[in-house]
Amino acid sequence: MGSWASVREWLEQFVHYYNHQRPNQALDGNVPVEEVQN
């Protein structure tokens, strides 16, 4: 099991990926951050 610091780092990386890189089918292939900025 990892340390809390490594868990936090992984979570921060995942949230960034999810909001900035992962296309979302419900948003017509856009990423969430694009929808918020428009």
How would you describe what is shown here?
The chain is mainly alpha-helical and 38 residues long. It has one domain (4-34). Helix content is 61%, strand content 0%. It has helices at residues 4-20, 32-37. It starts with a helix and ends with a helix. This is Transposase.
Concise synopsis of the structure shown:
By secondary structure, the chain is an all-alpha fold.
Largest sheet: none
| Tertiary shape | elongated
What percentage of amino acids are in beta strands?
under 5%
Q: What is the CA-based Rg, rounded?
A: 13 Å
Q: What is the straight-line distance between the termini?
A: 40 Å
Low-confidence stretches: none
How many strand elements? 0
Report the order of strands and helices.
Answer: HH
Helix-strand category:
mainly alpha
Number of helices: 2
**Total domain units:** 1
The overall pLDDT average reads: 90
Helix fraction? 55-70%
